[in-house]
Amino acid sequence: MVTGFTMLLFSCYQPTAVQKPVLSEQQLIPILKEIHLAEALLTEITNRHQKDSMARYYYHQILQQHEVEFEDFEQSMHAYFTQASALDSLYQKVIVTLSEERKDFEAKQKTKLQNR
Q1: Alpha-carbon distance 54 to 42, whole Å?
Q2: How buried is residue 2: exposed, middle or buried, by Cβ count under 10 Å (0-12/13-18/19+)?
Q3: How far, in Å, CA of 42 to CA of 78, rounded?
Q4: Mean pLDDT in each 10-residue stretch from start to end of the chain (116 residues)?
Q5: What three-state secondary structure class fits 22?
Q6: d(CA 71, CA 33)
Q7: In whole angstroms, how far apart are CA 35 and each of 6, 38, 71, 85?
Q8: Cβ contacts of residue 33 below 8 Å, gap of 6+?
Q9: How far from chain centre, in Å, is Cα 1?
């Protein structure tokens, strides 16, 4: 019985084909950075319908600004989601980018305050 179950299990197993993302990391990093900034703005909206509407608007604007089709973005993200190490690497770079921008912003704010 165990042998039959094992054979059944392995006969159903099909390895997932690894897809190559349409968009490069260099293209995805600024898009994901802006999406996460938009998500931060959306946390302030309590009305679910309004939040969903604004999210669609922000995502559309972000992809349009980067001249990226939604289908290409979606395919690329799916490809990264099937490769945990690649997804982790991508998000580490997004985090570094966000951190650097925050430091720059804080330095500019500090300079503004000192010049008053």
Answers
A1: 8
A2: exposed
A3: 23
A4: 51 63 96 95 94 95 97 96 93 96 90 84
A5: coil
A6: 19
A7: 44, 5, 16, 21
A8: 94, 97, 98, 101
A9: 45
- Compute the Cα dihedral for 11, 12, 13, 14 and give only its sign: positive
- According to the model, what pLDDT value does residue 17 have? 65
Query: pLDDT per residue over 7-23, tens digit each?
Result: 555 555 555 566 789 99
Which residue type is seen at 84?
A
Determine contact, residues 22/76, Cβ cutoff 8 Å: yes
Take residue 90 and report the two structure tokens written for it.
Answer: 């991508």
